[in-house]
Amino acid sequence: MRQSQLFSKPKKEAPKEAETISHRLLVRADFIDQLSSGVYSFLPLGKRVHDKIEKIIREEMLNLGAQEIYLPVLIPKNLWQITERWEKIEPPLFKLKDIHGKEFGLGPTHEEVITELVRTRIKSYKDLPLYLFQIQSKFRNEMRPTGGLLRVREFIMKDLYSFHQTKEDALNFYQKVKNAYFKIFKRCGLKKVICVEAEPGTIGGELSHEFMVLAENGEDSLFLCQKCGFALKTEKNLCPKCRGKLEKKNCIEIGHIFYLGEKYSQAMGANFIDKEGKKSPIIMGCYGIGIGRLMASIVEVFHDQKGMIWPKEIAPFSIHLISLLPSEKQNLAEKIYQDLKKREIEILYDDRPDKTAGEKFAEADLIGIPYRVVMSGRTLKKGSVELKRRDSYKTQLVKIQKLKEILKNDK
Fold this sequence. Notes:
23 strands, about 30% strand
């Protein structure tokens, strides 16, 4: 991608109302744009990151044996009433009427819809277990959306739903999803993720866990044992596992899983016939990850005073090629750009003639692509380019003919 053609206008200053690091940097770098409170557009750079996170999540869901579906956002009032969530869900539903006066709620979650769908199709124990997931828009009527993508009113979420014959089978799958979540977060660059038991809230169920990443400006908090690493959300004097000291840490929730049991299947009549011919409620679980929230959380962890530092697998591009060459030698940078593209290396090429070297470097640091490759008159005299990792202050001169091999081996 040529930067001269990229739909992006980075800003020198962050919005005054931006409280979190991720909000400030994502807006400044023009990854996102705020349309209204808690409602954001994803611009090309932001969409590329969002899509890569989505791809990782989809791969890991398919690895679990889940099948992908897509459910409606408009959910009729009567479905919400069956589970008594039309009035009780928190935060309250976005509600609207169609031209005929029929009432709907915009879906913040889809337990009712998926249970209704499965209720009409699952009849026998032979149909179980079943795992269905979607990646879809959600709407939450937040009282005070804050933190950029960390607390919004409209967002994309992956929600997985599982259906089982027995509690034992459901809890076994619950553990498999736990492991898959750790793998997802690790692939996204987050190696230190903490799983803690949590309150089910208005989703309900008998068991729930949140996945947390430590962050200085995190809106949530947990108590972490400095001795054994055990964590919990409620304050105690000592660690219940090893009696070590617990320390309060700020954190951000990046995923939530629930063992629902029979909560929705009982209410909605979702039953199956077991091997003995007995009718029993389907045992359920649900598992969510907000993609924009995860994206913002990654920025909260990976940044410095100059900008974002994207992990390789989710970076918008792999290489930021910056040309400081005079116009008569620009063809040399063009050749490297085309060669790297042919090797299917994702590259952002700063070919803009109207920007100074300082402006190009500042924007490159702000955007946070893993590698910066600079071509200048000084480097050409040595038949080299300057190579720098975004997460390092060191630069090195690399022979042009060796650049492709170095990047390939470190991809």
